[in-house]
Design brief:
Strand content: 5-15%
Keywords: Oxidoreductase
Oligomer: single chain
Family: Belongs to the short-chain dehydrogenases/reductases (SDR) family.
Shape: globular
Organism: Exiguobacterium indicum
Largest sheet: 7 strands, parallel
Number of strands: 7
Protein name: SDR family oxidoreductase
CATH superfamily: NAD(P)-binding Rossmann-like Domain
Pfam family, one: adh_short_C2
Helix content: 40-55%
């Protein structure tokens, strides 16, 4: 029996969020899953685990606050008995409105901890266990929001910390390519997941030439390609998969 690769997906906390869509897509394509959730109910995590298991996946659900300094160590300590992951999807994010009037040290630190520090520390822990397990093919993917395509003046802390992931992606890709690990970032553009209300949908829809807003499943399918053997020659890239979104 072929052993299923193990993927870690951070930030799967609601049925319609991007993290949940990624988990479903990877479970359907033959992966076992470790997903982290935060501010979700235990009942939801249990039911979502069952949903993924019904697709044939082994699943480990971990309640985790990625804002804590020891979050990466905590996660990998819990994953140790589950197996060695060959895929890391840094999807979790912290976002609040911060313009020049409201930005302060506390809000900046909160964004930094989840959006930048956690992905970097998770990536380094992932790489260390990858080497110790003598694996030869791995994938790291971060989710960004197109911060390098235009200004976000009402979300200064979010734009700054998530934007730094693009630089990290390019630098870390070069660092771990000799180990057989690819590192990429995906910007899915405005996605109709958990944050959109009807007014937002109405305002954004004309900016999509396909006549619809992006769905969580759109980015999940791209990530499935990137983690597959067919995606093994793509690394150090920030992929703007926005369905032609016009700013």
């Amino acid at each position: 029996m072929t052993k299923r690769p193990i993927a870690i997906v951070t930030g799967a906390s609601q049925t319609r969020d991007i993290g949940a869509a990624i988990c479903r897509q990877l479970a359907m394509s033959g992966h076992d899953l470790v997903f982290t959730y935060f501010k979700a109910t235990a009942d939801w995590a249990t039911s979502f685990t069952t949903e993924l298991e019904n697709q044939g996946a082994r699943v480990l659900a971990i309640e985790l606050d990625l804002g804590q300094a020891d979050a990466a160590d905590d996660l990998f300590d819990q994953v140790e008995d589950f197996g060695t992951p060959s895929i890391l999807i840094n999807n979790a994010a912290h976002s609040t409105m911060t313009d020049w009037r409201t930005l302060d040290a506390a809000s900046l630190d909160q964004h930094y901890a989840v959006n930048l520090r956690a992905p970097l520390l998770l990536a380094t822990r992932f790489t260390k266990q990858f080497v110790e397990a003598h694996l030869t093919s791995g994938r790291i993917i971060q989710l960004t929001s197109g911060q390098d395509l235009g200004p976000m003046p009402d979300e200064i802390a979010y734009a700054t910390t998530k934007g730094a992931l693009s630089t990290f992606t390019k630098t870390y890709a070069a660092a771990v390519a000799p180990l057989g690990i690819t590192v990429n970032a995906v910007n899915p553009g405005p996605t109709d997941s958990t944050w959109m209300d009807e007014a937002t949908r109405t305002a954004l829809k004309p900016s999509f030439p396909f006549g619809r807003i992006g769905a969580p499943e759109d980015v999940a399918r791209l990530i499935q390609f990137l983690v597959s053997p067919d995606g093994g020659w793509v690394t150090g890239q920030v992929i703007h998969s926005e369905g032609g979104f016009e700013r």
